[in-house]
Amino acid sequence: MKLYITKIILGTLFLLNTFISAQTLSKNQFQVKGNCEMCKDRIETAAKNAGAKSANYSIDSQTLTIETVDDKSADIILKKVAEAGHDNEKFKASDETYDKLPGCCHYERDSKTVSTIENHDQHQKNENEFYVKGNCGSCKARIEKAAKESGADFAEWNAEKQTVTLKFDTVKTSADKILKKIADVGHDNEKFKAPDSVYKNLPGCCLYDREIGFGEKNPKVHYEEETKKEDHSKHNHDSEEDHSANENSGEKNIEQVNIIGSKAATSISKKDAGLIFNIDKKELLKAACCNLSESFETNATVDVSFSNAVTGTKQLKMLGLDQKYTSLTKELLPEIRGLASAYGLNFIPGRWIESIQLTKGGSTVTNGYESITGQINTELIKHAEKSETSLNLFADFNGRAEANITHVEPINDHWTQTFLLHGNGTFGDTDMNDDTFLDRPKGTQINAAYLLNFNDLEHSGFGSHFGINFLKDERTSGQIGFDKNLSQKEQSLYGVGIDISRFQVWNKTGYVFKGKPYQSLGWMNQYVYHQQDSFFGLRNYAGKQHTYYSNLIFESILGNTNHKYKAGASFMYDGYEEDYLTNNFKRNEIVPGAFAEYTLTGLKYTLVTGARVDFHNLAGTQFTPRLNFKYDFTPQTILRLSAGRGFRTANVFAESQQYFASNRSIQVLQNGGNIYGLKPEVAWNYGASLQQEFKLFGRKSTIVADFFRTDFQDQVLVDLDRSPQQLTFYNLDGKSFANSFQTQWDFTPFKNFEVRLAYKYYDVQADYLDGRREVPFMAKNRGFVNLAYSTNKNNKGGFWSFDTTLNLVGKQRLPNTSTNPAEFQLPTYSESYAVLNAQISRNFNQKIRAYLGGENLTSYYQKNAIVDFKNPFGNYFDGGMVYAPIMKANLYVGLDVTF
């Protein structure tokens, strides 16, 4: 009997213990950083030694799955994992421990910063704060629906901040329950990770970066502990009374993520094989970004210079070569090329720009064959979670005024429309160097665009973007007093008139295959009509261009996502008609083409290799191979290599209009080609870059050094040296090359203060008819300094911003004028100079911003910008010898208002 009772008691205790264990044992996933099998062993061992019943670490998903007795023990385990050297979502390893890890274990640490182990008790993350990953409107709808289905009375997800605001009855549900449901439908968050099977079946537009922190498509999130603590204290103070009432009445609580910080204004894509700079709208607001030509004032990679002392136009140069060798696209469609080359930078207003992607060296073959030194792609404003209208007003102290209106409106869950309107006018007579010529033209521009976007990738798999743009630009320049309405025969003054009309319509449509988010089909189409009527003194130039472009791209994988490929076909038609003096030039360029590109992704490397073949009716069959390779020695040390070929047809008249404001006669030395009697331009570009990140002053610091060489197999040379009275075009016979070296250092010495330093060296030479010479108007040495500081936001969201940029330009070789009379001769080399720009802006809240700035505050200007300006119809008159600014300091003011 006694033995029987003992067995009953023991059995009951065993069942009770089993029941209690089953009730308290929980299984959770946490984000932990690691790279390799050594990391996996170290993390799992640390977790088990800290009390985990089981521990399994996935290198691919960067997650640690553990079974624990209670939630509190999970914190102890994650702390031990951090002590072993691995950052996770609750604790950060000390720098000393991290540095002692083997080289292969040095994971990337800058995606998300949490408290260090030593400071965790003083700076704990607010337990009511969460983030949820996603990309688009479909993600927003899915996240909010899941939250409401799990008991939330209110849920709002913010794509830009990657934050969710929840309102719910704590009696009926909990934050954990809601976040678990959100993970179940495919969205990782700081407490739960979505199942791989669910994530893989999301539409292509919803496939966010699953590594710790946010990826390239989303803001980089970090917790600035000091600021967060202040915000949290303020939140507690403001809501103390409400919280007390909630405790007494059982009212609903609001839980919100407060994330401080966003993606950098300019960043280098660490995942792309090519050297790509992503320029955000925040960067464009640092200067008077009135159009694309002024969008690079705070960027060290692109050189911006005046190309003419009469028309006041600006041109870009990259890797030591003229703008025409860089592919300039809008929405990944060909934009500034052909007849638009001279003035096209003025056709994209700065306030229309959402972002810019700048690629150094040969870009992907899917975007065409014309890129030689790189690609600059501009994306227009077209995304908004709610209806938003913005007004920008700008004026400078020399008679220039601009107005921009942008309106983005979601029509419904799938449709969004954007209205863009720009107008500018220059009305004052500006002559700062007293040569009787206007330093910049007078005139007006009206520019309007409408964009319509459709996104139903989640259900039907389709997405589409439609755009239409019309522009009218009229400019008058020359001597003060010139009347454009009178013919040249009726007046003695020298004048320049430029009238441009431009119309564009385009569409991009994509389809993501159901159940295959990695497989898609895209088709892009665009039609452009461009017309220019102009005169330069007694010299007339007019041109018309019709362009149709089509590009079909299929993308998929070979076995798995480590092996991706693209294949497709393109078609380009350019119809040109030009009149210069009494000469008429007509031609049609018809270019069908095909391409393929393969991407191999390994643990530490990415290889992108592709080729295209184009059947040009005038330039013959052209083969264009390109290769980009990236190797991560560590997450902080990245090597990139690139090589590729490009070709283009030269538009010698349209691309050399800066020399029309002179009395040079034009001569084309034909060489048997089918375009002006010249052959196409063909060049190879090779590049290498090293990107190194490290900590300085306790903050992220980045140094990038790159070297690029461009070798021309054939080139149309623009020879200004044969005679000061002649402009000669001919094909290269010999060598032409450009060596470009740049090093750039970005760092933050203290909070809210950003510093960018750069040095550039160029060696650009060509074999002209009379021997090898340096290409004119190219400084061998350039220096760059950009400083940006902003104050902390006040309780209304207001803050101050201060930005300044200093450009140091070394001496440049000038065209030979030795046969001119002594008073009309230029030195062999220009002098060095410095240009300082600065801007102060005040954000009063999230709706109103005012700014005051100055350009060329050093007031350096070229005093002899126009040769023989007193006799503009004489043999020695030349307004194309420009190597420096032609205007002194200029101040401007502006206002941004968002409704």
TrEMBL record:
Q: Where is the HMA domain?
A: 125-190
List the GO cellular component terms.
cell outer membrane
Q: Which Pfam families match?
A: HMA, TonB_dep_Rec_b-barrel
What residue spans carry the region label Disordered?
A: 223-253
Where in or outside the cell? Cell outer membrane
The main place the protein resides is membrane
InterPro entries given in the database record: Beta-barrel_TonB (IPR000531), Beta-barrel_TonB_sf (IPR036942), HMA_dom (IPR006121), HMA_dom_sf (IPR036163), Plug_dom_sf (IPR037066)
Please state the span of the N-terminal signal peptide per the UniProt entry: 1-22
**Single Gene Ontology MF annotation:** metal ion binding
Keywords assigned by UniProt? Cell outer membrane, Membrane, Receptor, Signal
Protein name as catalogued: TonB-dependent receptor
Which organism encodes this protein?
Answer: Chryseobacterium formosense
